[in-house]
Amino acid sequence: MPSTSQHTFRLFTALSLAAAIEGLIATVFLFRVPSLESSNGWFGFSVSRLALGAGAIFLSILFFALGIILARQPAWLQHAAARFESLLASRENLLAIFSIGLFGLVFFAGIILAFSTSLTADLISTPLIYQRISPFLFWGFAIFLQSLTAFSLRYKAALLEKTPVSVWKVLRPLAWLIMAGTVAFVLADILAHLNITREIGFHYVAFLSALALFLSLSYIKEEYQDQAWAKKASELCGAGLVFVSAYFLYVSTAESVNYMHTPSKAYFNHLAEAFLQGRLYLESPDSTMDLTFFNGQWYVAFPPLAAILMLPGVALFGANGISTVVFTIFFASISVMLVYLILNELSDLAWSRLSRGDNLWVLILFAFSTIHWYMAIAGKVWYISRILTVTFFSLAALLAFKKKSPLLVGAALGIAMTARPNIVLLWPFLLSIYAQHLQQRSELRFSRLFKWSALTAIPIGLCVGSLLWYNYIRFGNFLDFGYATMNVGQNTATVQTFGQFHPAFILYNLKYMLVSLPKWSASCGGKLIPDPQGISIFLTTPALFYLWKSFKKEIWIAGAWLAVLLQVGLLLMHTGSAWEFGYRFIMDFMIPLVPLLAVAAGRRVSWLFKLLIFLGIAVNYIGVLWYFGVWCPA
Questions:
Q1: The model's pTM
Q2: Do 350 and 421 sit in the same domain of this protein?
Q3: What are phi and psi of 528, to 5 degrees?
């Protein structure tokens, strides 16, 4: 046998024996503290503790037996080792094993770090569970660290090769292993009575859904890539995977800051209840901030789309039986999915030079390197409307990119307007997309543009008419949304003097949109905290600096910039806002900016672009912690 194989046998013999010893040490730590009297069983320990200990001892024995077998090197093992070496001759198989080891290492390290922070302090039983299983978490971390290090040293040259491989083939074994491990963990949790799955059962459903979609996508791409239906099926699986992943991560964020229930000042759930009871006003609201008082009743001035969409849930579970946080997370995740489809459509049209793989970087930018992250889990009245606006305008843009009927495009935009009417100023972006399609077919004529515009105007007009009628039946005035008399605290007098929009607010908004920075706070333990009026969009989303590279002589790019400028021009005259992270009004024109960023990225997402994305993720994560009281607890 070659000396390298002898070296490999000795190396993995040492690893097996080390794992056995570490398992016994973990078992000793498990039984250092007796169980509570209420759960005492044999020898003063609970059944779950004894079950964990028995499992650890059994695994330690298996590792010890494996070490002895490896040391003796029987003929059948040498034959198996030779087959294993031939299997690793394929770089895809080699990388698949490496990815499994790397995932295990990150998985155990992530759990250990997560439970070492204050983010889990408010979870009722999780700290106790962590104390019970922490020795095994460190054991698992040690096994993967040792094994991955040994494997990397043994196959260093092959791992560092630059031969192209199929990502799907590399990651598919890992996905199957994760699915099997997840099912095994659920069964172990049930048998050991840990009740972890009862606390975070949703995560398993979302996680397994994401894995199932990934495996389906992988199978289709590898086995049926030449079939006509495969592209559509792949797109659906990919979109579903993006939705589930975004939903999983947003919910996990909300749970980590203990913010899953409907907050105060959500209002739309109670407005939906009022609609079901035949009212347009709220009875005894928990707060009157940002409500409008008229004829002795409190009204929600904001347009009613959110309340309409909440009607089924409120009808089934009541106003207090639904979570507006989960509601906004659901639609925010749909927005991420729609942006994914938009970016892919841009690549397919060759309007962007990025590959579908590089599009994922721009998608991550939108989902986590913008204030969309914290807004997705805020669940309050202002954020609910804005998230819905992003969702339905994203749908309108996707329909336009896919050359769908102008009636559908106009309907999506009109629905978005029933959340935030000012979104109509982005209509030139949609028109420019249609014009770009016409130009590519050499059919760009005014008559076609006029017809398309007229058709989009039909559903938009219906939605505008519905909004105006809603105003009239509330306030007796078609044009009165109730903003002028809204109870906005110390800013009420300002609004009543200048109205909702006025040039007097331009300098104020320019400051908080472009140049406002965090402030040093001694009361927050000497940390930097954001200005509650907002901080610069270039700080919350540093990748926006790349926008200067998006200027191209294309109709749709000009339309995107025109839409952005129109929206910014209006928003600069808005009264502004308070107690927010970042400049939240950027979401009113973020969807045109995302394709522009894809164009600005060029053929490949550069290391600098990626660095700016990661900086934005870090800033927005701090923003999440700050907004929900973790960064600077009261």
A1: 0.77
A2: yes
A3: -80, 135
On whether the CB atoms of residues 420 and 588 are closer than 8 A, the answer is yes
Average predicted confidence (pLDDT) for the chain:
84
- Facing residues of 299 across strands? 292
Instruction: Give the tens place of pLDDT for each residue, 322-336.
Output: 999 999 999 999 999
Neighbouring-strand partners of residue 521: 527
| Axis-axis angle for helices 555-571, 427-440 (nearest 10) | 170
Both tokens of 156, joined, read 């260093």
**Phi and psi at residue 519, in whole multiples of 5°?**
-120, 150
Same domain (yes/no): 171, 292: no
Q: Which two tokens stand for residue 629?
A: 């009281």
Residue that has been written with the tokens 């590399």 in this structure: 170
The pLDDT value recorded for residue 315 is 95
The Cα 613–Cα 366 span in angstroms is 9
Inform me whether the pLDDT recorded for 268 exceeds 80.
yes
**Does residue 378 fall inside a structural domain?**
yes
Could you list the residue range(s) of the whole structural domain that residue 156 is in? 3-247
Rounded Cα distance between 395 and 459, Å, is: 15
Among 154, 214, 170, 184, which residue's Cα sits nearest to residue 6?
A: 154
Is-contact 543 365, C-beta < 8 A? yes
Q: Scan for tokens 């009157």, then name that residue.
A: 288
**CA 446 to CA 453: how far, in whole Å?**
10
**144/206 same-domain check:** yes
CB atoms near residue 20 (< 10 Å): 20
